[in-house]
Amino acid sequence: SRSKDIVEPLMKPQWYVRCDEMGRQAAEAVRSGELKIIPEAHLKTWFNWMDNIRDWCISRQLWWGHRIPAYFVTVNDPSVPPGEDTDGKYWVSGRSENEALQKASRVFGVSEVKISLRRDEDVLDTWFSSGLFPFSIFGWPNQNEDLQVFYPGTLLETGHDILFFWVARMVMLGLKLTGKLPFKEVYLHAVVRDAHGRKMSKSLGNVIDPLDVITGISLEGLHAQLADSNLDQAETERAKQGQKSDYPNGIPECGTDALRFALCAYTSQGRDINLDVNRILGYRHFCNKLWNATKFAIRGLGDHFKPEPQFQITGQESLIDCWILSRLSHAVVLCNTGFQNYDFPAITTAIYNFWLYELCDVYLECLKPVFNSNDARAILISRNTLYTCLDGGLRLLSPFMPFVTEELFQRLPRRSEQTPPSICVTTYPDSAEFSWRNDDIDRNMEFIMTVIKTIRSLRADYNLTKTKADCYLQCLDSETVAIVTQFIPYIQTLSSSNTVSAFKDGEPPAGCAVAIASDKCTVNLLLKGLIDAEKEISKLTTKKSELLKQIEKLHERTSKADYKEKVPQKVQEGDSEKVKLLLSLFSV
């Protein structure tokens, strides 16, 4: 033991609960579908326990807990021989001592005045008391209004490590004592471990206090917490080294919203969560992005903007307006499906992608030329579309980041006086409200984004950070030309190009860098007069010589006499792929 004391076991009579029938009922409830356990990977554990259950020892020799309502009977009558603790005939139970006294009087056939009771000093197992929780909190066994209204519940959310200890006991006792399941569904979350997958332990110094993640703490502050613990000197030093290794600069302030979002996003890992503070910090940066983007958008709406009481497509929306509404509708579908399936990573991914990669990176950038134009009608349509995206996007995110979304929601103008005063009491977006999915526009825009990324990649290769170049898009067929032509204003904006031209026949001007965007489109970026040709040729020559060295090294390795016999097949396949890749780069 930690205190170095010698602990010797002492045989003592214990109280048991017979569980075979209760276990059979609990197993049957899951098999019949009356009780659903999520994820289903835990069903094997459930049936293993329930189908092989043994009697449950509920006695605990502790100073705290619910004292077992069992009384040892001593009868002051010569006709009744004295009993022993181990003889169950001399024990009675009752909700009160008076009830136990009346029961003993009936059992032994003597008057109550001749009976002495001694209550057992043992307390109930914690899990027995906890198993009564779903109905005892509503006044059971009294049949009152609270019990009838609030019991049984719908969903239990808890950790998978106490599936048998608590969940099974609640199910068994609920069925036995009330005749009803305490809930219809059980969602089991993962156990949080450190970034290395180790169980959190004070002696390792890897325990992460959520409050420290929320508010931040220095390395010295983490060390100070160890000083207030009950670790001995050697354990304290080991814990300090662990903290210094994992958090050399302490834990940065991440905020509540970022922590909530990260924990929900982490649940895809299954049984365990390897919690990395750096990932939580990444979601704090996402909060900053969200704040700045909404602030910019509100400025774009203008001081006197009044959203429509109910947004409706007018038919005058631009391609980019229709696209962002389609992406919002898609995100709504993904989120609702995720909630139905308890797939929280799918929800957080859908929301993150919509806000960061679609609304911020694409739509807001495409709105800048619109808001700077003199087309009042286009500006009004885009403002209504933008407001709808802000409102819907914040409502999608609200369950995961309640604080920042509430703050931003309060800064948005209201559609009407009937709009709920807080985002936490608004309806969650559904497909009936957001029904603007357009697969054709989504597909075309996905192709256009591939073109834009190819142009950006070329610009980065030639270090064109501020210089705008002319772009010529050579298309395979007339259909592709038509699609690209529709999106030219957005390609020009998002790729920082001077001009963008799409054509099928003919050749681009001389002096272009070439990159393949897809099998239907080739990007030609006019670099003549924008870069130092000799410098670029020198860079390419150096790169070519490096590729040659790598190819020669691989050929030398693979041509050895014992290569095929000694080198594992997987390594040989990897080397072959490397050669093909290097040769393709060399040919380019």
UniProtKB/TrEMBL annotation:
It is an enzyme of class 6 (ligase). Residues 530-557 form a coiled coil. Its EC number is 6.1.1.9. CDD domains: Anticodon_Ia_Val (cd07962). It holds the Pfam family tRNA-synt_1. Residues 321-468 form the Methionyl/Valyl/Leucyl/Isoleucyl-tRNA synthetase anticodon-binding domain. It comes from Polypterus senegalus. Belongs to the class-I aminoacyl-tRNA synthetase family. This is valine--tRNA ligase. Residues 3-276 form the Aminoacyl-tRNA synthetase class Ia domain. Keywords: Aminoacyl-tRNA synthetase, ATP-binding, Coiled coil, Ligase, Nucleotide-binding, Protein biosynthesis. The keyword Protein biosynthesis applies. GO terms for molecular function: ligase activity. The keyword Coiled coil applies. It comes from the Eukaryota.
